[in-house]
Amino acid sequence: MKSIFWHTWVILLIAALLFTALPAGSVDAATGPLCYVDDDALGGNNGDSWTDAYTSLQAALADPNCTEI
Q: What are the sequence ranges of the domains in the chain?
């Protein structure tokens, strides 16, 4: 009876250590520039700011430099 309790305790301890040691689904942040999209933008249409925003989502998605839209 004592060995069952001991094994259960050891298994629970190992499980607790594993769950606290593993990262909880970390997500990498976008590393590239932020690209803006606004269908009413009148600027340069290059996505650099709200003034120069792309006027279509497709154009922003086609730009390989846009990692966050």
A: 33-69
pTM more than 0.70: no
What span, in angstroms and rounded, lies between the C-alpha atoms of 28 and 52? 27
Give SS3 for 54: strand
- Count Cα neighbours of 8 within 13 Å in the Cβ-side half-sphere: 5
- Report how far residue 46's alpha carbon sits from residue 57's, in angstroms, rounded to the nearest whole number: 12
Q: What is the pLDDT of residue 38?
A: 93
Tens digit of each residue's pLDDT (9 = 90 or more) over 25-35: 666 665 678 99
CA distance 41 to 53: 6
Tokens of 63: 């730009």
